[in-house]
UniProtKB/TrEMBL annotation:
The chain crosses the membrane at residues 135-156, 204-222, 242-263, 299-317, 329-355. The keyword Cell cycle does not apply. Residues 418-500 form the Mechanosensitive ion channel MscS C-terminal domain. InterPro entries: LSM_dom_sf, MS_channel_C, MscS_archaea/bacteria_type, MscS_beta-dom_sf, MscS_channel_2nd, MscS_channel_C_sf. The keyword Transmembrane applies. This is Mechanosensitive ion channel.
Length: 540
């Protein structure tokens, strides 16, 4: 008897120690389905603790509830020497071990059988309840969803009509305004159907999205169709989830790209500031002209951004993809093949920039084209002629030919204008020189501090060629200065009674009047007669 008491006390001590070490297990971890506790686990199973085991079994039973073709008679119980396993078809729902039986008044096989009976009863009642009152509620909820969908589609159609009406009114007002200004509106009439078509397509897309979003809601109302709802939601959620995760994972690279871009941008701003200071003359560098500042800045800016792209390229999404690399190489080949002439003009533009053959505002001549430079860039140079014709010349063409610049030294040394007249041998050359020089000095636009000069360029058969040379600083007004110079030459020669028989001079004057205006003819002038001298000395 005394031994039995000792054994009983020892068992009580062991039980108390077990409770002290694991009081939560003795408390039990419930398996709750639809707020109903089916049973509790007091011990773990394998690698799972009691609470983890209860969570796993709960998820498996909830999977049975969401199954479309659930049948409680498909639940099976199998017993072996260590475990009792409850399965549904080929899926393991739960296992009962010998430790579980220690917390009940029955053995393991009986405990497992009671668990199986609870599952069949509770789950059967769950589906039975759903077949009556719950089904009615589900149908009413589905009807409400359909009605709400119809209302949303109706509201969307009304909104689309309102937007279309507003667009038509705004478009008509715009076309009336253009017509009042004299602008053509034919293109606007062709563009309106395209805009309304795009609006109609957008409305159809929104309706499809509403219907697609309503379908998962409808399927989720009925337990048997919940897997379909989850599937439809997965088609939308999974891509967005992937995109969101990709964006989150890309944030470090994005920050790196932002830092590289900001550093490059501020370096470009610094270079631009220095270039502006050089261009305005605030900073001077020996051998570096002010007009080089902005072109040099543009070149450095392109190089800096190109270097930035090279550094940023490995951080771009998909840069390590073979497809991305192949497309990049393909675009590079297309650019190099399709822009050979453009690159040639760009290189020529850079060379012309540092050659400094002309600048904006200069009067130049390229080939047969003369005009003022109104624009120069890396690709072309634009000239404006005295007839206000804008002519675009590729830089490669300018670099491959010769260019005449009339403005380079016009302000300092003066541009020499020259014109040629032919006068007969009967007029002394000193007289011609004086007349031409006086005509140049009387011309507006001719420099007064540099004396004009005359060159006798040829002794022709019937006349002498006299070339007048005069200096002007108005290189952009060459045509007007030439015109005034020619007017003064005519006036001076007419006042002196000297005929300008250019380009040909006839030595035989058969009774014709002198070739000067009547206002300049001396008083008492008579036309010379036709004289013939012979042996008889006959004269008439």
């Amino acid at each position: 008897m005394r031994k039995n008491y000792c054994l009983l006390i020892l068992l009580l001590i062991l039980s108390f120690a077990t409770y002290a070490q694991n009081p939560i297990s003795l408390q039990g971890q419930p398996v709750i389905i639809n707020k109903d506790t089916l049973f509790k686990f007091y011990t773990g199973q394998g690698l799972f603790e009691a609470h983890e085991r209860a969570e796993v079994v709960t998820k498996r039973i909830e999977g049975l509830i969401n199954s479309i073709d659930f049948n409680k008679d498909s639940l099976r119980l199998s017993n072996d020497s260590n475990l009792s396993v409850i399965t549904y078809k080929s899926q393991i729902i739960m296992a009962v071990n010998n430790q579980d039986a220690r917390f009940s008044e029955v053995n393991r096989q009986q405990l497992a059988a009671s668990y199986l009976n609870i599952l069949k009863t509770k789950l059967g009642n769950y589906f039975a309840n759903n077949s009556t009152q719950q089904v009615t509620i589900n149908i009413l909820e589905a009807t409400a969803v359909v009605i709400l969908l119809i209302i949303l589609i109706w509201a969307l159609n009304k909104a689309a009509r309102w937007v279309k009406l507003k667009l038509l009114r705004a478009w008509e007002a715009r076309m009336d305004k253009l017509a009042a200004q004299g602008a053509p509106v034919v293109y606007a009439h062709r563009l309106l159907p395209l805009i309304t078509g795009l609006l109609r397509i957008g409305r159809f897309i929104l309706i499809i999205l509403l219907v697609y979003m309503a379908l998962p809601v409808l399927f989720f109302i009925f337990p048997s169709s919940k897997p379909i709802a989850n599937l439809l939601l997965g088609y939308i959620v999974t891509p967005f989830k992937s995109i969101l995760l990709a964006i989150v994972n890309y944030i470090p690279n994005l920050l790196t790209i932002a830092v590289i871009y900001l550093v490059t941008r501020y370096i470009v701003k610094l270079v631009k500031f220095i270039a502006n200071e050089i261009a305005q003359g605030a900073i001077s560098i020996n051998g570096f002209y002010a007009e080089w500042a902005m072109p040099t800045y543009n070149i450095i800016r392109v190089l800096l951004f190109a270097f930035m792209f090279v550094v940023v390229f490995p951080y771009l999404p998909g840069s390590d993809s073979k497809i991305f690399q192949g497309v990049t190489v393909f675009l590079g080949v297309l650019f190099s093949l399709g822009s050979s002439s453009a690159i040639s003009n760009m290189v020529s533009g850079i060379v012309l920039t540092y050659m400094r053959p002309y600048k904006i505002g200069d009067r130049i001549k390229v080939g047969e084209v003369s005009g003022d430079v109104v624009e120069k860039n890396l690709l072309v140079t634009r000239l404006r002629t005295i007839k206000n014709e804008d002519i675009t010349i590729p830089n490669a063409t300018i670099l491959s030919g010769h260019t005449v610049n009339y403005s380079t030294v016009a302000k300092t040394m003066g541009l020499v204008l020259n014109t040629t007249v032919t006068i007969g041998y009967d007029v002394p050359w000193q007289t011609i020189h004086n007349l031409l020089i006086s005509a140049a000095e009387a011309t507006e636009g001719i420099m007064t501090d540099k004396k004009p000069f005359v060159l006798q360029t040829a002794l022709n058969d019937f006349n002498v060629s006299y070339q007048l040379n005069a200096y002007t600083a108005l290189s952009n007004q060459m045509a007007a200065v030439y015109s005034r110079l020619h007017q003064n030459i005519q006036d001076k020669f007419n006042e002196a009674g000297v005929e300008i028989m250019s380009p040909h001079y006839t030595s035989l004057r058969d009774g014709n009047h002198i070739q000067i205006p009547d206002g300049y003819v001396p008083e008492g002038y008579s036309k010379p007669g036709f004289k013939v001298e012979g042996d008889g000395n006959i004269q008439s």
